[in-house]
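Proteins fold reproducibly. Look at a concrete instance:
___
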Amino acid sequence: MGRVVHISDTAFLIAGLRAGENDRAQPLFRDPLARKLAGDFGKKAPSTKGLIDLAWSVAIRTVIIDDLIERALANGVDTILNLGAGLDTRPYRMELPASLRWIEVDFPAVIDFKNERLADDQPNCRVERFKLDLTERASRRELFTEINKGANKILVITECVIPYLAEADVAELADDLRRIDQVGFWIIESRPHNLKSALGDQHRFLFNPTNWFGFFADHGWQPEEVRYMSIEAKRLGRPSPQAPSNVLWRRLKRRFVSTSRREQKDGVAYVLLSPGPR
């Protein structure tokens, strides 16, 4: 597979892993456009342990986020704001209301590439794309204000974006989103303290709070639903590809630590947040 150099390169890697899901005998989802977007990253199946683990993670989190989006739509969301959208194709592969406004934000190079590759493909809802570095706060707040004017209820998605932002940047983003009065939900991942990236130290996680839920509570966000990946994987019949050396330790751990406590302490989860009183 290709080599990840810049953090935006992960968009191609993730698209390649989604493309690989199409080739499985029993795929958890189908993404017909993934290989078209992935380029060299979509030509080979993952072979290293890190990429095998990442492919599993991408498959499980895709299903979880799809489910959370459907729940948000059922609760009146008419606008979806996907920050750091990368090469996500949900507006094309999911069954969505034609009236839904789907807004994608990412680096200029990613947006230009995506516009070019998908020029002949028709999304299932209204899609708009904006070129923006999410750490440019003034431009970001201006965009949020404009989007808010035309929305009744907004769902924000930051799929695997927050871990790569500094804690101060995450705090500012959480505050800025909470100030937008039409934002009703935010999908975000919860990760254990000091968890390492499967892509290596050059892509280490910058956002590393000791109390994830406490951090967002301090900025006015509360969990509506928490979906732990290990629990979802079991439900979907796709267990984590753990190294054999870890299996015995995990079995012993299960005997002495309750499931709820273990998942809260150690598990990666995807969380549907809602803002507290403004």
Residues 1-7, 197-202, 243-249, 255-266 have pLDDT under 50 and may be disordered.
